[in-house]
């Protein structure tokens, strides 16, 4: 596991690390610019599978962060990458939004309700009882059950919302089948992200705000883990777990160079 001085590539969570309620957090725009100026390989990760990288890039721009779409890695992309590696040119029935269906299409998959290879459940605000019933019957008929991320709830301006894990729980209960979860805390998501940018665990760092997903998956993937305190974690939260991040910092502003640095041309 690398020390921070040895880190050459970075993976970073988005919400609670770079942005909070659609506002860039202190130091986030400068850190992204620093990585780009230095030619540092990096990806911004999110477990949210609703939006495509292009959508997310636009949303981050409104928040004051310039992150190109090719620098964004979602649980939808990781799920499509996993499914395509397991069954090239396969088929899927999807409960999810454009982020998930677009990723699968681009990975060569066909969307179908007839004997699909996979039932894929991602983040959605529009699921129906009919879709849940269809998913249950397809899984009982032999389709493999895949979930983009395990989060049971998600935030909104009005309060918590039921998220992917809650919807998947209904299907799991009805089928008696456990899904394979691709997103954090499965280190598979980090490995697929590192493959995307040609990074290796020995020289890659992960920045996150959650012990139970970001730090756990980062440790399991062999990464240098940095926990920021701008999200949901405090010292009491850290103390709940038997593992520790490589370092704890107040926010990403602490990762900025305070001295002039040379940019390789």
TrEMBL record:
- Which Pfam family, any one, appears in the UniProt record? Hydrolase_6
Alphabetical list of CDD domains matching this protein: HAD_Pase_UmpH-like
Classification via InterPro entries: HAD-like_sf (IPR036412), HAD-SF_hydro_IIA (IPR006357), HAD_sf (IPR023214)
Q: Which family does it belong to?
A: Belongs to the HAD-like hydrolase superfamily.
> What NCBIfam families does the record tag this protein with?
HAD-SF-IIA (TIGR01460)
Q: Would you tell me the protein name for this molecule?
A: NagD protein
- High-level lineage: Bacteria, Bacillati, Actinomycetota, Actinomycetes, Micrococcales
